[in-house]
Amino acid sequence: MSNQPLLQIQNLRTSFRIGDDYFAAVDDVSLTVNENEVVAIVGESGCGKSALAMSIMGLHPQERTKLEGKINFKGKNLLSLSTNEMNKVRGKEIGMIFQDPLTALNPLMTCGKQIEESMTVHTNMSSEAKRKRTIELLKKVGIPNPERTYKQYPHELSGGMRQRVVIAIAVACDPLLVIADEPTTALDVTIQAQIMDLLKDLQNQTKTGIILITHDLGVVAEMADRVAVMYAGEIVEIADVHTLFKNPLHPYTRSLFNSIPSSTSTKDRLHVIQGIVPSLKNLPRSGCRFKDRIKWIGDKEHEVNPLLREVSPNHYVRCTCYKNFHFSDEDVGDMNYGIS
Amino acid sequence: MAFLKVNNLKVYYPIRGGFFRRVVAHVKAVDDISFELNQGETYGLVGESGCGKTTTGRTIMGLIKATSGEVLFENQDLLKMNRRDFNQHRKDIQMIFQDPYSSLNPRKRVLDIVAEPLRNFERLSPAEEKKKVQFYLEKVGLNPEAIYNYPHEFSGGQRQRIGIARALTLKPKLIIADEPVSALDVSVQAQVLNFMQDIQKEFNLTYLFISHDLGIIQHMCDRIGIMYRGQFVEEGTSRDIYTNPQHIYTKRLISAIPDINPENRENQMKLRQEINSEYKNSYDKYFNAEGKVYNLKPISDTHLVALP
Known about the structure:
Chain A is α/β, with parallel strands linked by helices. In chain A, about 30% of the residues lie in helices and about 25% in strands.
């Protein structure tokens, strides 16, 4: 890609203090997001995907978190900004959509005022202009009666409508980058489809970059341009969405695909990844982190110090264990992972 | 004869207001639904939040009082029974709850949690009780030595299996699973779903599987009922519903499932738009003046659709 990426994360490590030690929840993550691109970050709970998002936004409590590496956004390293400077970026240039629309909204403020809030902080628009812009935003996110919703409190709205208000807040100041942390997880399927369409529309209009954090591979397939799969704090595979869904390589990615009940797979039993996600304290800090969950793959298949390597253009995979990987219950050579 | 038969079940909640707080209207949470479960099958109840699927499950459990209707379990009406008879039948119907974090008492040990139904219905010596609890823990794939641990020491999937072990101790015939895997990650979800299928075969269980996730429903269920605003819009075998949906609401639900293949993205979006406009245009065809659906009419031996 010729132009400068919008966001460039270099070797980010986010560590939390537990007792007297720091434990890295996000470990050596490098990722770029370009303008007008949707990058999905996929993984199970505890893999560090939300911690990564919060690191970009600078929302971790400073006294208990250590951030190393670089997050370059518009030529600035976000990690070196002071709180005041960060406040100017947050909400203005980077917007965030939170998972649960009920807890993300203030129950004591009307929806209109909440959308106006970020405009009050970041611009010096007159109150009449703000009101006009808010109503315009509410219309844009597909709320049928924006004048009424402007005066309503969050509890008066349904879940889908609330999520639309949260999206309106995130895009109120025309951000260059939107981080969407599980934007549809708390919603019904039909509402989820509407919200996905809405995000795509907004993105087409404004050319924002979106980081989409989710555990739902269906949502990824419908929205993302590029996908990063995270496991235990590390990115284990990055590729564009078509490559990744057609040809997933890392054992973890393949296991994930096999464990979703989908209409295309005719198998009666779902694939189960053996073992459990290691907790932050018990993470193996060296070697392949997925090793313990694919014990039938011999030690010599793994790298001692696994790196993210480019296996084909723009397709990166960590560790060499993918080369000879097979599921424990399948014959070697049977490479059908349920995607037609 | 059907194993469980629900006839014209209604659950209404009064809305009070005005002078003397009289009943001015009703919220019709469940509005005149009928369905049957055969022994050994998995029946899926699907719908969006607020459609009454959980209320239906809880009414069958006896946790919510029905306004009218019949729930025939092995030919006896659970709703007309006196308390003592009902408690005897309650042994045969157990529930798996949605959230494994809030459905286990954090101050009780696993032994006490799993043994609670046993203590209510059977008189066992502590040694027998312990043996039985350990037997079921082993069945659900947990370490039987873990009986003195507390729920917080387990992961989400393990907790859900403790909940399942608790539901199994009285050898129930029917299990009502209310969104049993919604709170779990995909890989853990797979584990719990596989396991539910295993115990179904082993104990000859019948499941009433309540979920909003159509992918899981398709994977698990033999027959499916689709609910909308307290009523059924369509009922049929898994095949009927997924390959030949008739009601516009069902079509809309199915088209909303994200397609796992990114190549189909455009088609899926187009299909969704078509169905949405059809939904808007032909609303009158499928819903009556009050916005209610019509009564179910059979279109094949297994397939019922709510059409005028």
